[in-house]
Amino acid sequence: MLQALRDKTSGWIAIAIVAVLAVPFAFFGMEQYLFQNNADYAAKVEAPPKWWQSAPDWWLVRKFAWSSAEVSAEEFRQTFDSMREQRRQQEGEAFDARAFETMESKREVLEQLIDRAVLGLAADRANIVVGDAQVQEIIQSIPAFQVEGRFDPQRYQMALQSTQPPRTPREFQEGIRIDLQRALVPQSIAETAFVTTGESTRLMRLLGERRDVSFVVVPPLAVDAAEVSQADQQAWYESHAARYREPEKVALEYVELKAAADAGAENATVDEAEARAHFEQVKSRFATAERRRASHILVEVPAGADEATQQAAQKKAADIAAKAQAPGADFAALARENSDDPGSKDGGGDLGWVEKGMMAGAFEDALFAMQPNAVSAPVRTDFGWHVLQLREVDAGKPVAFEDVREQMEKEVSEGDSSRVYNEQVGRFVDEINKNPMSLEPAAAAGGVQIQTIAPFARGAGSGIAANNAVVQAAFSEALTQDGTVSDPIEIGPNQTVFIRVTSHTPERAQPLAQVSERVIAEVRADRARKQAEQAADAMVAEIKGGKTLQALAGERQLQAQDVPGIPRGAPVPDASASQAYFRAAPPTGDTPTPGKVMLADGSSVVFAVTKVEPGKPEDASEQEQRMLRQQLGSLLGSEDAEIMQRSLRREMKITVNEARL
């Protein structure tokens, strides 16, 4: 039987069946089969090609025709950690790290990174290019790179080297270029927004509107002391279960290693030969790098240009170079007339001072091989052909050992301290590797004390338990499940801790019996709030029925207040009440419009709007009207940019890999 099946499936019919099945497999199933478990990105954005906007979302088509950008897991983690630190600084003690670690928060951060990737692809498709001069202008305007209000190349280099991880000028420059490129798309859309005179006039009437209001503040009712049945407790507990969960907690023991502050005290005098040897190794830090003042003329070559276009651009650049090299030529005038670099064109091609590492390789190589006042032959980069003019050279200035002797001696001394510290950490790691389940042998060998931290929740610790790296390790599965000592965790310069989790309590629901008092208090407070709201609703109904607010206040021994001409935003008696006044419909004739607002403390404000007076645009000066139109135009432009962003996202395919978050 099996042989018969083999015979019948070995001819042309079997081949045809396989071919038919291969088509849907190739277009729909192969991607999942090959790549479903291999993605190492947090998100991926794919866009159809500009020349085929309606390209189908098939794997083979996307693979070979669509462009893509990825949000790496590392980029997401760095951004998420940075956002957490910002929120911690903003909220202080009120910051809840556990609440911030939710998937909702992670997706919120990831969505921002996806938006950046979408804008990057949109800019590439629109052939948006940011000129070198514009990048240089941004860099030179950053206060961190300035000394006494002027850009300082040495400060620039040192600042980049102090970042984590260190960045070269070229890397930083490309990062600025990418950020500017992404910002140009929404910025261009936002700048097209405008506001008509009629729109601004109507808005001024609304913003300047004033209302006459009578209101009474009804104090909160006393908390109901009536018994709360077991059934009511159970119902409240189940409907608000998230409030009664005990967060995950860990308790720690740890050892802290620090470099001794007086490690070099025994040998206060540093050998001069050693200090000089150190100076020879690091003297490039102190020398002012050579810089060159340059101008350029760019003949742009679009990405993907055909051979004829490229040759035409090269010929045009050669003709410009010949004109610029002629005696008496005005390079700045040629740049204003011919350059395709919008950032430097109006300035005659001026790029300012340029150091090595700030420009593309071929551009930089040509510039630093030129003689002052010379004009180069055309130089090819990714942007097109450049004709360069070297206007001035500022040679680097070396620093003598005597000028930095004290600093060299200090660094040698600190280096000795760091060396002792690193050796101590190394010995401690060796002891931990011998006894990975206990800190005691390593602590005894190193002569340090083991310290403990009582159980704490994520984000609720203090001291080293507030350090992000410590928290991440403490709540990791490796330490909570195995009970092993952690790898060394650096929490500061020359400061390292080793931790071990001594107890771990997973997140769990607190039983009703444990939180019953809290449940009862919340049920009673909820009852009081509902009763207060019902009383306020009853007062509003009576006003609608014809009673005056003053009469109602007198019946309840409350004080009604009449406030004429309340402007928008005035907290009378509370900002939320003011918002309610202006949400209410205008009164009809002599019939006021009543309403109510519940305040956070359980009290309520019952009010009646008796008169509405629109704002008077004619009272505003021309300058005030112009400023309002500008502000409104800015708001409308931002809204247009957001709409454009959403539209771009719909045109692209976005894949999120939550396993990498």
Which features does this protein show?
single chain; about 650 residues; alpha+beta; four-stranded antiparallel sheet; 23 helices; 19 strands
Report on the biggest sheet.
4 strands, antiparallel
How many helices? The count is: 23
| Helix/strand/pairing category | alpha+beta
> Could you tell me the radius of gyration in angstroms?
36 Å
Strand proportion: 15-25%
Oligomer designation: single chain
How many beta strands in the DSSP annotation?
Answer: 19
Q: Specify the helix fraction band.
A: 40-55%
Mean pLDDT: 83
Give the overall shape, derived from the CA principal axes.
extended
Could you tell me how far the N terminus lies from the C terminus, measured between alpha carbons in angstroms? 53 Å
Widest sheet: strand order? 16-5-18-17
Q: Ranges with pLDDT <50 over ≥5 residues?
A: 1-6, 12-37, 262-267
Structure in a nutshell:
The chain has 661 residues and is an alpha+beta fold. Helix content is 48%, strand content 18%.
